[in-house]
Amino acid sequence: MNDMNSTIASQAFSSATPVIALHCSGSGAAQWRKLGEALGSRHAFVVPEHYGCDSTGPWSGERAFTLADEAARTIGIIDASRGKVHLVGHPPMA
Predict the structure, then answer these.
(1) Which end of the chain has fewer surrounding CB within 10 Å, N or C?
(2) Which helix (H) or strand (E) covers residue 70, if one does?
(3) Which positions ≥6 away from 17 have C-beta within 8 Å?
(4) Cα separation of 79 and 43, whole Å?
(5) How far apart (Å, rounded) are the C-alpha atoms in residues 75 and 73?
(6) Which run of H or of E encompasses 87?
(7) What distance in Å separates the CA atoms of residue 24 and residue 91, rounded to the nearest whole number?
(8) In sequence order, what are the beta bridge partners of 88?
(9) How many helices (H) and strands (E) does the chain have?
(10) Whole-angstrom distance, CA of residue 73 vs CA of residue 34
(11) What is the pTM of this model?
(12) SS3 content of the chain, % helix, strand, coil (to 5)
């Protein structure tokens, strides 16, 4: 897990069962703002950014990009939870 995911996980998992919200490619974490506000302090709220987002930057190009590369960030956060998580996602908007 990279440093950013370690930081996210340590912040998120020091409290209640985390909610991990996944945005679609081409979107960003901001789309989950209202859900985060609605959850308040009842749950830790984590929205990992995908490659290509401003806070994450582009894929390194060291090899062909795969879905497994995109998923690795989220899997690292889930693994760091050492417990159950609520995983939320949605289909891309048409």
Answers:
(1) C
(2) helix 67-81
(3) 43, 44, 83, 84, 85, 86
(4) 17
(5) 6
(6) strand 86-88
(7) 7
(8) 21
(9) 3, 3
(10) 23
(11) 0.71
(12) 40, 10, 55
Tokens found for residue 85: 């998580």
Name every residue whose Cβ is closer than 8 Å to that of residue 87 and which is 6 or more positions away in sequence.
Answer: 20, 22, 78
The amino acid occupying position 60 is: S
pLDDT digits (tens, 9 = 90+) for 33-72: 899 899 888 888 888 887 777 777 778 888 998 889 888 8
Domain layout of the chain by residue ranges: 3-58+68-88
Helix (H) / strand (E) element for 88: namely strand 86-88
SS3 85: coil
How distant, in Å, are the alpha carbons of 33, 82, 83 from that of 30? Answer: 5, 26, 26
Rounded to an integer, what distance in angstroms lies between the CA atom of residue 63 and that of residue 54? Answer: 21
Residue 88 · residue 29 · CB < 8 Å:
no
